[in-house]
């Protein structure tokens, strides 16, 4: 199984370093020296991480074979993808991989059906559930502890306590989705963990991975 664990940002300096928008809650594991990552587009990779460090709150990586700013700039916006055993689970019990959350029924605490999770959108500030309602419309549910109160994988459901207007004002929801930037078009999945805590140290202009790439 593939997980989107990062997105390459701007070049940093002149020796090939790049900033990386982190989309995993396990950067030490997924983005450590020696890690070999597939890419989207595939033509940019595979990339092997030579070194990494945090600078001013951002992760900087250097890849083998990338020795100057020109090479680093050529990687801008490339998605970094890790191969993960589908049976592997996040270490934190409050974190989930996207494939665990897909198709969960979304209900209120009293059992009222809201819909089904069809997509996970990873934004820099938080992750969003894209929920298809029984009438075919869609609503976005922020994956934060205050709203998503329970994830029950055995019962295949997510229990929510939405604030007024979140699931009723569909026009506002639809408009918000069109402005949010959506989610990656890559084949890789993300991670959702921590129910609303972004795992990224990345740039605010990027698109995210669900924490809740790896959460």
Q: How many strands in all?
A: 14
* Major sheet summary line: 6 strands, antiparallel, barrel
Query: What value does the Rg take, in angstroms?
Result: 18 Å
Poorly predicted ranges: 169-187, 194-215
* CATH-defined fold name of the largest domain: SH3 type barrels
Approximate strand percentage: 35-45%
Q: What CATH architecture of the largest domain do you see?
A: Roll
Overall average pLDDT:
79
CATH homologous superfamily title of the largest domain: PRC-barrel domain
Q: What is the N-to-C order of secondary-structure elements (H for helix, E for strand)? A: EEHEEEHEEHEEEEEEHE
Strand order of the largest sheet: 1-2-5-4-3-6
Shape: elongated
Q: Span between N and C termini?
A: 14 Å
Helix content: 10-25%
**How many helix segments?**
4
What is the strand and helix layout of this fold?
Elements: E1 2-12, E2 17-22, H1 27-30, E3 36-40, E4 47-55, E5 58-63, H2 69-73, E6 79-83, E7 95-97, H3 98-101, E8 105-108, E9 113-122, E10 127-132, E11 138-142, E12 148-152, E13 157-160, H4 170-180, E14 191-193
Parallel strand pairs: 8-13
Antiparallel strand pairs: 1-2, 1-6, 2-5, 3-4, 3-6, 4-5, 7-14, 8-9, 9-10, 10-11, 12-13
Please describe what this structure looks like.
The protein is mainly beta. The protein folds into two domains: about 80 residues, Elongation Factor Tu (Ef-tu), domain 3 (Beta Barrel), CATH 2.40.30.60; about 100 residues, SH3 type barrels (Roll). Helices cover about 10% and strands about 40% of the residues. It contains four helices and 14 strands. It starts with a strand and ends in a 22-residue tail after the last strand. The C terminus is likely disordered.
């Amino acid at each position: 199984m593939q997980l989107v664990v990062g997105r390459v940002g701007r070049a940093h300096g002149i020796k090939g370093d790049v900033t990386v928008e982190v989309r995993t809650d396990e950067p030490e594991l997924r983005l450590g020296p020696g890690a070999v990552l597939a890419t989207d587009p595939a033509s940019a990779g595979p990339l092997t991480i030579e070194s990494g460090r945090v600078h001013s709150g951002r992760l900087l990586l250097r890849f083998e074979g990338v020795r100057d700013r020109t090479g680093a700039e050529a990687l801008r916006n490339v998605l970094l993808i890790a191969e993960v055993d589908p049976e592997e689970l996040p270490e934190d019990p409050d974190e989930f991989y996207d494939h665990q959350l897909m198709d969960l029924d979304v209900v209120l605490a009293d059992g009222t059906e809201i819909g089904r999770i069809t997509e996970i959108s990873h934004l820099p500030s938080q992750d969003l559930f894209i929920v298809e309602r029984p009438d075919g419309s869609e609503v976005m549910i922020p994956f934060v502890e205050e709203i998503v109160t329970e994830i029950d994988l055995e019962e295949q459901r997510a229990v929510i306590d939405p604030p007024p207007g979140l699931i009723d004002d569909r026009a506002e929801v639809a408009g918000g989705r069109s402005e949010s930037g959506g989610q990656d078009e890559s084949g890789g999945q993300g991670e959702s963990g921590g129910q609303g805590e972004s795992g990224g140290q990345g740039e605010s202009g990027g698109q995210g991975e669900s924490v809740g790439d790896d959460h």
